[in-house]
Amino acid sequence: MKKGIGLAALLLIVFLTACGNSGSSSDNSIEFLVSGDSVEGNAISTMAKKYNEENDANVKVVDVPYEDMATRVTNMVRDGNPPELIRTTKFSPLWQDQLLNLGEIGKERNVDESLFIKVENEVKALPLDLTAVGMFVNKDLFEEAGVEYPTSEDDIWTWEKFTSSVKKVTENTNAEYGFVMDQSEHRLLTMLYQFGSEGIRPNGNGEYQVNQETNEGIEFFTQLNNEGVMPKNVWTSGANAASLFKSGRVAAYMSGNWQLQDFSENITNFEWASVYMPKEDTRATNLGGNYIVAFDGTGNEKATNNFISWLYKKENHEQMSRIGGYLPVVENAEVNYQFAQESFEIYQNEIDASAEVSSYMQTEIVAKQLIAEESTNNVLREEVIGVLNNDKSIEEALNNTTDAYTEAYGNN
Amino acid sequence: MIKNQKALWALAFIGTNLILFIIFFLGPALLGLYYSFTDYSGISASFIGLNNYIQLFQDGSFYGALFRTIVYAGIGVPLIYCVSLGVSLLLTSYKTRGKGLAKIAFFFPWLISPIIAGVIWRWLFGESFGFVNFILENLGLSTVSWFSNGIMAFAVLFFASVWIGTAFNMLLFMSALVNIPGTYYDAAKIDGANTIQKFWHITLPALRPTSFMVILLSVFNLMKEFPLVQSLTNGGPGSDTTLLVQYIYETGFNKLDIGYASAASMILFVLLLVFSLLQLRSEKRWQN
């Protein structure tokens, strides 16, 4: 009951805020909803300010809590008063009919087409800032143990080699764990791709399935957890993987380029480095990041399009990526980062060397969010947690996962 | 006429409350009931009759969550009852020193949000950097995997629940204890009753109405516990501490299966209703 009251109160607040906004959204002023800009060096706000000064425009960047973005935008759309522009990772089917087709801008500005979110041949969203999964090592621990890690693309390690290396590190130093991975489906999928998984894909009948390699990857992952190479409490009970790595007592950490700024500024008790990720079968990373979505029916469509086009202009995109520490999505863009330049180069190499699957699931599942009402958000993660907790077998976990995908997306 | 006028006045006085009740309480409740018969996903709903309920009664993870909720309330409520009664007895005893400070210390948990309480306990019992494991390690003992072992995670949850539950219930007990007439104890003393006899034959019977309140409120609170579990264990390891409300939240907000989640909410509602009716009945029997 309490929840009902809270929900109703929330709706009322949203309704009132929406009403409050309705007066201001005209006269070519663009409301741009963004999450977490302040922790990313105010990249978006800086660009908006620059645009406003150069073009005598009025782009207003509004910071919205990450968790609230989809709900808030959905409510605004329902109310018939959508924002002009948002930067998001989550989508709702309710938006689908009210989105501007950004295909032309994307093509004109040479944005990476494999990352376009397309529904029925219309580009509903463009990637704005790209992220990729990558590996960090504690350089001090590796050196102390006298263990080597690959420094160029010519000597990429296998998962077997990687595991024996980090085991050696824990044996010969005071390191507590060899390896830690964020409790995230996105990270786990990266590892599975490296084992040769093709992700979770539909067959001809629209039934989703996984290949045998996926099974093997999860088996390996489970073994790492059960042997104590990885701390089990990260995946089973949500201990913070990043703080474990930052404590200096973990040899390697699989996360992504979004950590670079934080690590550069805040890790002072040891030397760390970005290294090439292991592969078993294929080299792969997993792409992610935010998308830019523009709404139709605001009366400011033209101004919005102009701003988006400006934002993707090569030098502007480079500047934004530099401030925010983003990987660029515009072809041939070269970014001189303010920190961890070598790490960014490794990420770029990883992306270039990655199999097609690295962007497939991401764009596919994001596009599904615009069509399907049900969500498969974290299904695989929850199932694998069940495996680690000895609640179910890998076989069962994968069957449950593919069933959930089929149920949610099978008819679309 | 006069009667009608009185009724009108009464209505005017409760009007605000009534409107709020209907908008924010009755409305959502009825909406929830309706959703439980649909496959509502937050976007569109079509009527599917009793399908959600049929599916629910065949769902192993629903039974798991239900069972854990009953265990949680079944163990947690007696624990909270005993500890808060014990603490209030100590705090009303004339022998205790430093009552003022102790009252503040015991009441403190009530002043912080359950989310913060969860974070505090999570930090205390953290496996890698936790305070408790740090102490254990320094004493030369082996550390305990508080959150990756299901039973231990439940134990930490009990600690935290009792810590929070004691704060408010202690207040109820203390005011009731102070109000027990001293003459009873004097009479018992003359009759030669010892402390245990006095407690058993005077204190406990005199506390009946308060005990009824404490038990009822605790059962409701524990069966509906959400923020504490969310911030402390997040239902983990695996689903070992996933209670019914977590389960409802997961299905409703993560899987967007709001119809199904509403059906589960209705079951929780019926459970709580049945419990309060039973409790009311037994209270009446006490009074007679």
UniProtKB/TrEMBL annotation, chain A:
It comes from the Bacteria. Pfam families: SBP_bac_8. The keyword Signal applies. Residues 1-20 form the signal peptide. SUPFAM superfamilies: Periplasmic binding protein-like II. Keywords: Signal. InterPro entries: Bact_solute-bd_prot1, SBP. This is Alpha-1,4-digalacturonate transport system substrate-binding protein.
TrEMBL record, chain B:
One of its GO terms (cellular component) is plasma membrane. It is found in: Cell membrane. InterPro entries: ABC_transporter_permease (IPR051393), MetI-like (IPR000515), MetI-like_sf (IPR035906). It is a multi-pass membrane protein. The keyword DNA-binding does not apply. Residues 66-279 form the ABC transmembrane type-1 domain. Keywords: Cell membrane, Membrane, Transmembrane, Transmembrane helix, Transport. Belongs to the binding-protein-dependent transport system permease family. This is Alpha-1,4-digalacturonate transport system permease protein. It comes from Salibacterium halotolerans. The lineage of its organism: Bacteria, Bacillati, Bacillota, Bacilli, Bacillales.
